[in-house]
Design a protein that fits this description.
Layout: E1 8-14, E2 19-25, E3 30-36, E4 40-46, E5 48-53, E6 56-61, E7 65-68, E8 74-78, E9 82-88, E10 94-96
Antiparallel strand pairs: 1-2, 2-9, 3-8, 3-10, 4-7, 4-9, 5-6, 5-8
Length: about 100
């Protein structure tokens, strides 16, 4: 089975109160450091990831959660193939640190 070469980011749902985005990818993939304009609630749906936030690595597996504060740089490294669900306000915008 061929795995995608990048982390897939897909909008799952949005209304006036929140939006839900899924991040998915293969083992060893990385999400470049990024910032969000609002708080995000992240939950691992499948697999194991490390989210680097505020100088600390947070290892998360299925069912584990992490709140990413607004304006804080964070990155993600996949330890296995994974799916992460991120819930935030619909007005939140994310940008990569190198943009």
């Amino acid at each position: 089975m061929n795995m995608p070469l990048h982390i897939e980011e897909r909008a799952l749902y949005q209304n006036d109160l929140f939006k839900v985005v899924q991040l998915a990818g293969a083992e060893r993939q990385r999400l470049r450091t990024r910032y969000a304009t609002g708080e995000q609630f992240m939950m691992v749906k499948k697999g194991r990831v490390i989210i680097h936030l505020n100088g600390t690595d947070h290892e998360l597996s299925r069912g584990k959660t992490l709140v990413v504060p607004a304006g804080q740089p964070y990155g993600l490294r996949a330890m296995t193939s994974f799916e992460v669900i991120s819930v935030m306000s619909p007005s939140v915008v994310t940008t990569f640190a190198d943009e």
